[in-house]
Amino acid sequence: MIVGAAILAVALAAMPSSAGAEVETAETEAFQLAPYKDEHFAYPVVLGSKYGGDFVMVEFTEERDVNGRDEVPLKKAFDRMVDLEVNQYKQDLVLQAGRNSTKYFAVGKADGGAKIVVIFLHGWHGDRTLAMEDLRFGGNFNRLKNLMVLNDGVYVSPDFKGFGRRAARQITALMKHFAANSPGAPIIIGCASTSCKTTYLLLEDPESAALMSGAVMFGSGRDEGFVDSPVFKDRSQWVPIYLGHGSDDKTNDWVTVELQFLDIKQAAPDYPIKFDLFLNGVHGTPIRMSDWRMVLNWMLELHEQRGQS
């Protein structure tokens, strides 16, 4: 079973007409991201799952998943993996919030009216250009750009100071900005490696957590304080979490992330969390391999359910 498989829910209701009255049809469709290059980015082999599909083991091989996707391994994806025309919708912007100035790239509906907002936080030694890479990581960031543009969303990659509370304040200000110009749009925070520390700060703060509809974490570590935070104990503020990790990650051992997953599962068995373990994968493998459309559609489904409850 593949974790987070997207479910498109369509409810059709027909109101019977009275004499001489027109038939009215009410149609409600939950917002989901339409397919884009799914044949290239769907998981090739799922080796097993646990916890009702919340913990999935995915096979990763260098021959298929690097050499089969990259014309120049680790540097340039094959043309079939990307569409560079999406960059015509890219802007280089600055948000001034109090004394904090935050530079960011945005692709898609940056000026407002977005249906979904994805903000990706770079890791150590990175900057806002990292998550704008089209040709590295097998073209997976390029796919995310295209998913946002094709589905009236916006994809954002900011610079920020450090990985502590100052960075968390900058990202909170950025979320507030997009919450204001795209009211009601779910806001998803993505992160890699060290920036996952910043994301946990956001998840543990009531103000920032209230703005979030999901957290996508690649190569993260463990935050033992999360399950003791007031936000975690308030079910109404639960934010869905996706963890993607390589089993051969030498930077953050996958076992520490499994312990994080188990901490959450044991404290709250129904907490919305998914863990995809890429067997034989390294620190950067989840950035290459995680299926953005599948993960985001799972979070969109939960966002829709929360809005109806």
CATH topological fold name: Rossmann fold
Strand order in the largest sheet: 3-4-14-13-12-11-9-10-8-7
| Largest sheet features | 10 strands, mixed
Give the overall shape, derived from the CA principal axes.
globular
CATH second-level architecture: 3-Layer(aba) Sandwich
Radius of gyration: 20 Å
Order of helices and strands: EEHEEHEEEEEHEHEHHEHEHEHH
Instruction: Kindly report how far apart the N and C termini lie.
Output: 27 Å
Q: Compute the number of strand runs.
A: 14
CATH superfamily: Alpha/Beta hydrolase fold, catalytic domain
Architecture overview:
The chain has ten helices and 14 strands. With 309 residues, the protein is an alpha/beta fold. The protein has one domain: Rossmann fold, CATH 3.40.50.1820. The radius of gyration is 20 Å and the shape is globular.
List keywords for this structure.
10-stranded mixed β-sheet, single chain, alpha/beta, disordered N terminus, Rossmann fold, two-stranded antiparallel ribbon
